[in-house]
Write a structure and sequence with these properties.
Elements lengths: L21 H17 L3 H14 L14 H11 L2
Length: 82
């Protein structure tokens, strides 16, 4: 298991489960893809890798200020007990 990433919520958003900053969501998607790859779970790896590719910083495209993915929030809760 790799080091669990940080959780960063957008400013002004109250409560848990309301979204993550784009950078935080990207880091979590990469982390979860890596965890699935180490567990040889090809379905989970593909799911998280695809999400990471969507969230990846691209030239000429700003990083999202806030994103919400229910599956990502559920996975974070499993790792952080939040």
């Amino acid at each position: 298991m790799s080091k669990v990433p940080y959780v960063e919520r957008p400013l002004g958003w109250q409560g848990a489960g309301v979204g993550l900053t784009g950078e935080c969501a990207y880091v979590w998607a990469l982390f979860l893809a890596n965890e699935a790859d180490m567990a040889d779970d090809t379905f989970e790896y593909s799911k998280w890798k695809s999400m990471a590719d969507d969230l990846a910083p691209k030239q000429g495209k700003p990083v999202a200020a806030a994103v919400y993915y229910a599956e990502l929030e559920e996975a974070i809760a499993r790792y952080t007990n939040a």
